[in-house]
Amino acid sequence: MALEIEYLKSAVFAQDFPKANRPEIALTGRSNAGKSSFLNAISKRPVAKVSQEPGKTRLLNFFDVGKSYRIVDMPGYGFAKRATEEKESWGKMIEAYLVGRENLAGLILVMDIKREWSEDEELLADLMWSRGLPMCVVLTKADQLKKNEIENRLHKIQAQSTQDAIFAVSNVKKNGTDTVEDFIFKEWVKPYKNKPKAIPAPAPEGSEE
Ligand SMILES: Nc1nc2c(ncn2[C@@H]2O[C@H](COP(=O)(O)OP(=O)(O)O)[C@@H](O)[C@H]2O)c(=O)[nH]1
Ligand SMILES: [Mg+2]
What we know:
binds guanosine-5'-diphosphate; globular; binds magnesium ion
């Protein structure tokens, strides 16, 4: 089912992030992996062009999904040609968000189905693991492979990554994209909402309210 996805804002620093009042799902992957196309595939209307505007490609772009959660489109990694300094600032921004964002509920790692799991993907997986947060892997451009090749790639990436939740999709044909969205909603967003709120510390005995 297509979703109401609305661009909210772009930011780099935590003080500029929207209020942490909804669970957020980070969307990341190499540039050209198909992040924006994936966002568009699950959306009623094209929204991802926002994140392709010059200047916004290096920011965290926050999108509201219906009334229940957010997707945060992150800048693509793997800019081999970029200056080291720039790559470093990218890393710091991503890490600060993934490590520090209190309402982060999961990470969607988007990969071209023809690419191999690499050190970059492993780093992201480690970050999520260290926080005890879930992730899934979305292999895009499945329309470019035959059915048995898709199966082979799924097995290979699973062996390389040791991830459990791996999906093959076609953003252009919208094959498998809704399955991913259903999974995120059922496994990450709903449980987050039902998570018991932290119990406030009791007032010290004899204290007046
Ligand atoms: N054939 C095919 N092309 C795709 C798919 N997803 C993305 N693309 C193409 O890959 C290129 C990069 O996609 P984009 O969504 O901009 O990647 P991003 O940089 O990760 O946001 C574009 O030319 C897309 O049309 C897919 O599932 N199948
Ligand atoms: Mg993009």
